[in-house]
Amino acid sequence: MRRLVRHKLFWPVATLLLLIAVSAAFNPSFLSIAWRDGHFYGNLVDILNRAAPLMIVSLGMTLVIAVRGLDISVGAVVAIAATVAALMIGGSFSASGDVASEHPLWLALGTALLVAAACGLWNGLLVVKAGMQPIVATLILMVAGRGIAQLLTGGQIITVYYTPFFTLGNGFLLGVPVALWLAAALWCGLHLLLSRTALGLFIRAIGGNPEAARVAGIRAASITLCVYTFCSLAAGIAGLIISSNVKSADANNAGQLLELDAILAVTLGGTALTGGRFTLAGTAVGALIIQTLTSMIYSIGVPPEVNLVVKAALVFAVMLLQSAEFRSLVSRAVRTGHKPA
Amino acid sequence: MNRRLLPLSITILLFAGMAAFGAIRYDGFLSPQVFLNLLIDHAFLCVVAVGMTFVILSGGIDLSVGAVIALTTMISAALLEAGWNPWASMALVLVLGSLFGAAQGYLIQRFALAPFIVTLAGMFLARGCCYLISTESIAIDNPTWSSIAQARIPVGLDASLTVGAVIALLVVLAGMRVAHASEFGRTVYAIGGGEASARLMGLPVATAKVGVYLLSGFCAALGGLVMTFYMLSGYSLHAVGLELDAIAAVVIGGTLLSGGVGYVAGTLFGVLILGIIQTLIAFDGTLSSWWTKIVVGALLLLFCLLQRLFEARSRKAA
C-alpha cells in the first residue's frame, strides 16, 4: 500500500478517478459507453476526444519543462498552424458549395507543421544561442506570433469547406476518435524514444544540472534545440486538430490560454517545474484531469462560471501536495497531534 | 557613464526617436495632449507595471495582475450598485487586492513554490471570482465616481491630465523612492541578485518576498480603480492579457527578468513606448491593430538581445 501511495502516478490518477467518481455519482449515465453510428459514444469518449489536443501540446511542454525551460508561445503556434493550414486548403470567404482544396491536403498540413517547427526552432535558438530566459524568449513569439497569424488572416475567421480536412478533428478510426489515435501514437512514440534510447537519460541530466550534463559530454545545446522544436511541432499538430474540429481557423482566439492549461497539465501530472524529473504518463493524466473537470462542471449542472474557481482550488491543492515544505509541515502537525506508536 | 544606466538610456532614446518619427510623419502629432494621452490611456497599465517591476526585480513574476484588475472593477461596481459609500469601497478593494497579493507571496515564500504557477492559479481564482459576481458588465453611475472620471487637471498649454494619470505619476514617483531609498527596495534588489547571499547578509528576505507580491496586488487593485475611472464599468473580461503588457513594459524599460537589475523610471518609459506604438498606428490609419503585437514582439526581441550583449560584455570586462 505504501509503495502504491509513493508511486509518482498515484496522486494524479487518484485525482482523476475521484473526479470521474463524482461525475458518475451526479450523472449515472456518465460512465456508459454506447456504440452508435459506427463509433463509440459517451461522456468518457468525449472527454478523451476533447483532451487530445491539450494532451499533445502538454507532451511537448513536458520535455521543455524537463530541460528547465518553459514555452508560453504554444497558443500562438496553434493559431499560426491553424491559419496556415486553413489558408492553403481553401480559405475562400464565399460559400460557393465547391469543395476542392486549393493545395493538396498533405502539402497544406505539411507546410503548417513545418511553419510550427520553425517557430520552435526560433524559440530554441533564442534560448540556446542567445542565452535568453525561456519565459522571455517564448514571450516574444507569444506576443508577435498571434499578431502574425492575424496579419495572415486579416483578422477574419477563415472557414474551411474541404471535407477531408474535417477527419482530423471529427473523424473516427475503428470507432475511436482520430485525434485520440494521434495523441496515443505521439505518446507511444515519445515513450519508446525516451525509454529505449539514451535520450531520456540525457534530458533528465540536462534538467538536473545543465552545466554538469555539458561537461559530461552531452550535447545539451542541440538536444534543447530539438526539444523546443518538438514542442512547437506538437502545438502545430494540436492546432490542426482544433481547426479541423471547428472547421475554421480563428487567429484571434485559437489556442488562447492553451499554454497555461498545458503547463497546468504537466504540473498536475507530477513533472517538477524545476526540471530534471518528468513523466509522460503523468502529463497525459494531467490533461485528462483538466478536461474531466471541465466536462464534470458542465454535466453536473454547476454554472460554468465556477469552472475557473474549481480549477484554481485544484491547482493550489496539487501545488501544495508537491511542495516538500508543505508535506513536512503536515507530517509534523500529524505527529504532534497523535503520539507516534 | 554607468553601464547599468545604458539600457534605460536606450529606452528613453527609442521613445524620443519614435516621437520624432511621428512628429515628422504626421500632422498634429507633436501636441502636448497627444503625449499626455499616452499616460491617460495607459494609466492603469503604468500603475500595474510599477508593481510588476518590484516582483521582477526580486526574480519573480506575477501573472495574476490582469485578473486582479478585473476583480477590482467587478467588486467596486457591485459594491456601488449595492449602495456602498464610494470611498469605503475604494478602501476595501485596495485592502482586498493587497491581501490577495500577500497570500500569493506567502505561498511562494513559505512553501518554496514557483511564482509562475502560484500566480497562474491566482489568475484563475480572481477571474473565476469575477464570473461568480456576474457574467455581465456592471455600469457605474455613482456621482462621486463619475466626477472623478470626468475631472481634468489642467497642466498648461491647453493640455490636461485625468485623475488616473496623476495617480499613475504618483505611483511611479513613490515606486522610485521605495526602490532606491528604502530598506525594502535594497532587499528586493539583493534578493534578485542572489537570494542565498541576501539571506546570509541578514536581510529580511522572507518579509520582502511576501512584500513584493503584496505591493503588486495593491498596485493591481489601484490599477483596477484607475481603470474604473476610465471605463466607468466593472466587467469580468476587463484587462485580459494585461499581465503580458505589464511584463513587456518592464522588460522594454530595461529591467532584467532574471532579477536584480532595473529601474522603476524605465518602466514608465516602457509603458509610454507601448502607448506610442499604438498612437503611431492609430495616426497612420492604414495599419491594422495586429501590427502593435508584431512591433511589441520585435521590440522585446531587440531589448532582450541588447541585454544579453551587455551582460556578455560586462562578464568579459570582469
Could you name the ranges of chain B where pLDDT drops below 50 across 5 or more consecutive residues? none
Main beta sheet strand tally, sense and closure of chain A: 2 strands, antiparallel
Low-confidence stretches of chain A are: none
- Order of SSEs of chain B, N→C? HHHHHHEHEEHHHHEHHH
Enumerate the strands of the largest sheet of chain A in spatial order, edge to edge or round the barrel.
Answer: 1-2
Oligomer: heterodimer
Number of helices of chain A: 15
Straight-line distance between termini of chain B? 17 Å
Task: Give the number of DSSP strands of chain A.
Answer: 6
Tell me the strand percentage band of chain B.
Answer: under 5%
- The chain-level structural class of chain A is mainly alpha
Number of DSSP-assigned strands of chain B: 4
What is the straight-line distance between the termini of chain A?
19 Å
The overall pLDDT of chain A, averaged over residues, is 82
Gyration radius of chain B (Cα, Å) is 20 Å
Which range best describes the helical content of chain A: under 10%, 10-25%, 25-40%, 40-55%, 55-70% or over 70%? 55-70%
From the helix content, strand content and strand pairing of chain B, which structural class follows?
mainly alpha
Bulk shape of chain B: globular
Biggest interface and which pair forms it?
A-B, 46 and 43 residues
Average pLDDT of chain B, rounded to a whole number, is 86
Features:
heterodimer, A: two-stranded antiparallel ribbon, 15 helices, B: 318 residues, 14 helices, 74% helix
Blueprint of the fold:
The complex is a heterodimer of chains A (about 350) and B (about 325).
Chain A: H1 2-6, H2 10-26, E1 34-36, E2 39-41, H3 43-66, H4 74-90, H5 105-128, H6 134-153, E3 157-159, H7 167-170, E4 172-173, E5 176-177, H8 178-196, H9 199-208, H10 210-215, H11 220-246, E6 248-250, H12 258-268, H13 280-299, H14 306-322, H15 324-337
Antiparallel strand pairs in A: 1-2, 3-6, 4-5
Helix pairs in contact in A: 2-13, 3-8, 3-11, 3-12, 3-13, 4-5, 4-6, 4-11, 5-6, 5-11, 12-13, 13-14
Chain B: H1 6-25, H2 32-41, H3 43-57, H4 65-81, H5 86-110, H6 115-133, E1 138-139, H7 143-150, E2 152-156, E3 159-162, H8 163-180, H9 183-193, H10 195-200, H11 205-231, E4 233-234, H12 242-252, H13 264-284, H14 290-317
Antiparallel strand pairs in B: 1-4, 2-3
Helix pairs in contact in B: 1-13, 2-13, 3-8, 3-9, 3-11, 3-12, 3-13, 4-5, 4-6, 4-11, 5-6, 5-11, 7-11, 8-11, 9-11, 12-13, 13-14
